[in-house]
């Protein structure tokens, strides 16, 4: 074996270096500036430690802070390890488990000692100071490979039972990498890491909160303390993120939902929403808007059962792939006696539907279908249930009961690209009506899937070609392909919306499915007189009404556009002499189709203005004695200074325009 290897750089140039040379040494040979800036290396596209020796010919790219995505992932991974080291330094006896990087930071799960108990938010500043001390010490982060059995023995000796359990489940004889921080602390990790703790900016991270967690995410296991943090490359990035967090807190849909009297959640119905009258107005407006959109696009609305026999879910494949997230129901009368089990061992099983697709196939199968009947577009505002863990529930964003704007398009092979292209146009129009920009991504085949490679090749190409023909496979639309992120039965296009403060939300989707029609024996008679399988396009635009409303609340900070606002106008009096005029004005506004209330309370007008502003009412029409005499109103618009005086008829005409849904306006 030669002692020299060939390293090819991104510009195409190549260097002959000694086997065992590190990327850091190559960076230093290129120049001192690069040596200082280089954080890690990409070896044939794989992110690796900059101090890890090269052993064979390779393509090498050096990662700097300009490669922000890679640099952030490295930094956040290292912040998590520094957090774990700091906690064990400050609180001896604490066991470590795992701590990954996240989309905006990191967390680490700990098993505190019984004497200490769960960690508290008040302890975070102390932990931050210890983290900064570790960073300032510029401790080398050194990789070692251990034999599995030797590492298990080491973890047991150190009292790290969780780490020992995890290591014991790795394949026998497998070599496992660990990383040392200096010579006095280590953790089991695949890496990669920065060269030393000093590569982190001590002013670019902040610990944010403590929460409970379960070992391996299972509530039957030991409860842990999870410490969250946010980590960045420099102080400026952290400051910008904290401003975003502050703005996000102001927009939190759970707080605004309570202030605006839209909805509430409570333990008696975990993960299910109690919609109040104001909130259900928003729901109904969205539902009416979507119905107009799907009617115009040639969909036919259906309604399917909430509960179906488990055998149906077995046939569809969901019972095997998704059963842990399904609510199952015994198909028998429960025992009403005080003694004995409520349900017998002989009970047949049914399940609340977690999705609508199998039921739509059953509708398609009713009666013979011809190729002339296709495409058949079936739409349902379908209520579904998924058995999410209690700890994963989050306001409207993650619930157990939800309603999808769900549809399935049954079509021929030659119709797929056109149907997907039409859906892209429909989704584009709808998202723009709500003021969203979006990125579109193609999620490709996962490792575990149904169907042949040839089928997946065809399905992926069809979705890709539809987006290309729609002109959306461009940098402007954030076009990207996501390997391994498709559903187990189909690839899918995903729409990622960007809200008013720059956050992204994955909402809409369309999936090209050849698996379910085959498993559930859906067919049509082709032009050749033979039976053929339709292709089934699963699609949604809102995703679910619950989550989409939550996103809208935060996007608009509760200040819905007038057409969506639960109360579009309030007529408020300055003096009681104007009460009769206020009542008459309210009646005229209501007759014009504007959701209007009157406020005749004996309160000062500034109090009324403040109260209705907090309730996010778009327009406040203030009337006093002069307005009553002149037939005018003083309009105060939410978010604007001052007021406008105008005749009542003119105000009604203006509000009618604002209260018109965007799809009903002349475009």
Which residue ranges are poorly predicted, with pLDDT under 50 across at least 5 consecutive positions? none
Largest sheet: 8 strands, mixed
What is the average per-residue confidence, as pLDDT, rounded to a whole number? 92
Query: Helix fraction?
Result: 25-40%
Classify the beta-strand content into a percent band.
Answer: 25-35%
Tally of helical runs: 20
Question: Globular, elongated, flat, extended or rod-shaped: what is the shape?
Answer: globular
Structural class: alpha+beta
Adjacency order of strands in the biggest sheet: 15-19-20-27-24-23-21-22
First-residue to last-residue Cα separation? 72 Å
Count of beta strands: 32
CA gyration radius, whole angstroms? 30 Å
Furnish the topology, listing elements before pairings.
Layout: E1 4-8, E2 14-18, H1 23-30, H2 32-37, E3 40-43, E4 46-49, E5 58-63, H3 68-90, E6 95-96, E7 105-111, H4 124-136, E8 141-147, H5 148-157, H6 161-168, E9 175-181, E10 185-188, E11 205-214, E12 223-231, H7 235-250, H8 253-259, E13 263-264, E14 274-275, H9 277-296, E15 300-301, E16 307-309, H10 310-316, H11 318-322, E17 328-330, E18 349-352, H12 357-364, E19 376-385, E20 401-411, H13 416-433, E21 437-443, H14 453-469, E22 480-482, E23 492-498, E24 504-513, H15 515-519, E25 524-525, E26 531-532, E27 535-540, H16 545-555, E28 569-573, H17 579-591, E29 596-599, H18 605-614, E30 619-623, H19 625-630, E31 632-637, E32 644-647, H20 648-658
Parallel strand pairs: 1-5, 15-19, 21-22, 28-29, 28-30
Antiparallel strand pairs: 1-2, 3-4, 3-5, 6-7, 7-12, 8-9, 9-10, 11-12, 13-14, 16-18, 17-18, 19-20, 20-27, 21-23, 23-24, 24-27, 25-26, 30-31, 31-32
């Amino acid at each position: 074996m030669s002692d020299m290897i060939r390293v090819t750089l991104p510009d195409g140039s190549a260097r002959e270096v000694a086997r065992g040379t590190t990327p850091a040494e190559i960076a230093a040979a290129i120049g001192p500036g690069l040596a200082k800036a280089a954080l890690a290396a990409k070896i044939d596209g794989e992110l690796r430690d900059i101090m890890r020796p090269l052993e064979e010919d390779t393509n090498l790219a050096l990662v700097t802070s300009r490669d922000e995505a890679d640099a952030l992932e490295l930094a956040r991974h290292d912040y998590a390890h520094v957090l774990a080291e700091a906690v064990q330094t400050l609180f001896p006896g604490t066991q470590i488990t795992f701590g990954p990087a996240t989309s905006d930071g990191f967390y680490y799960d700990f098993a505190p000692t019984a004497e200490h108990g769960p960690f508290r938010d008040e302890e975070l500043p102390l932990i931050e100071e210890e983290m900064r001390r570790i960073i300032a010490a510029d401790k080398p982060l050194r990789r070692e490979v251990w034999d599995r059995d030797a590492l298990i023995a080491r973890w047991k000796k150190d009292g790290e039972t969780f780490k020992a359990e995890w290591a014991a489940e790795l394949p026998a004889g497998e070599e496992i990498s660990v990383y040392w921080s200096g010579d006095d602390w280590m953790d089991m990790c695949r890496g990669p890491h920065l060269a030393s703790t000093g590569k982190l900016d001590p002013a670019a991270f902040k610990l944010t909160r403590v929460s409970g967690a379960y070992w391996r995410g299972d509530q039957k296991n030991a409860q842990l303390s999870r410490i969250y943090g946010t980590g960045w490359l420099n102080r400026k990035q952290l400051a910008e993120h904290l401003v975003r967090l502050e703005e996000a807190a102001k927009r939190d849909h759970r707080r605004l939902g309570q202030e605006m009297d839209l909805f509430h959640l409570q333990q008696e119905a975990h993960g299910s929403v109690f919609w109040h009258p104001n909130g259900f107005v928003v729901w109904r407006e969205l539902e009416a808007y979507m119905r107009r959109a799907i009617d115009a696009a040639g969909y036919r609305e259906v309604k399917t059962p909430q509960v179906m026999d488990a055998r149906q879910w077995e046939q569809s494949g969901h019972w095997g792939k998704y059963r842990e997230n399904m609510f199952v129901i015994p198909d028998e009368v429960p025992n009403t006696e005080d003694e004995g089990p409520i349900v017998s061992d002989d009970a047949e099983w049914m399940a609340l539907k977690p999705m609508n697709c199998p039921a739509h196939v059953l509708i398609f199968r009713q009666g013979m279908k011809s190729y002339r009947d296709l495409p058949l577009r079936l739409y349902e505002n379908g209520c579904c249930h998924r058995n999410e863990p209690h700890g994963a529930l989050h306001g409207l964003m993650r619930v157990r009961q939800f309603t999808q704007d769900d549809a399935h398009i049954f079509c021929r092979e030659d119709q797929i690209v056109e149907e997907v292209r039409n859906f892209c146009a429909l989704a584009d129009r709808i998202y723009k009506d709500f003021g969203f920009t979006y990125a579109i991504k193609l999620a490709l085949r996962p490792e575990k899937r149904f169907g042949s490679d040839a089928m997946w090749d065809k399905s992926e190409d069809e979705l890709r070609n539809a987006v290309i023909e729609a002109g959306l496979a461009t940098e402007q639309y954030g076009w990207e392909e996501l390997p391994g992120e498709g559903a187990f039965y189909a690839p899918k296009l995903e729409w990622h919306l960007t809200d008013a403060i720059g956050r992204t939300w994955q909402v809409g989707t369309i999936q090209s499915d050849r698996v379910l029609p085959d498993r559930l024996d859906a067919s049509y008679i082709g032009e050749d007189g033979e039976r053929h399988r339709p292709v089934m396009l699963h699609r949604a635009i809102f995703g679910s009404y619950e989550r989409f409303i939550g996103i809208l609340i935060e996007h608009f900070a509760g200040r819905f556009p007038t057409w969506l606002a639960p109360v579009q106008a309030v007529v408020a009096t300055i003096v009681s002499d104007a009460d009769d005029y206020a009542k008459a004005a309210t009646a005229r506004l209501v007759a014009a189709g504007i959701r209007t209330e009157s406020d005749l309370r004996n309160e000062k007008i500034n109090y009324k203005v403040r109260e209705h502003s907090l309730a996010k009412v778009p327009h406040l029409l203030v009337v006093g004695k002069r307005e009553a005499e002149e037939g005018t109103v003083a309009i105060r618009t939410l978010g604007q200074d001052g007021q406008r005086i105008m005749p009542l008829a003119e105000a009604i005409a203006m509000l009618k325009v604002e209260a018109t849904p965007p799809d009903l306006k002349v475009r």
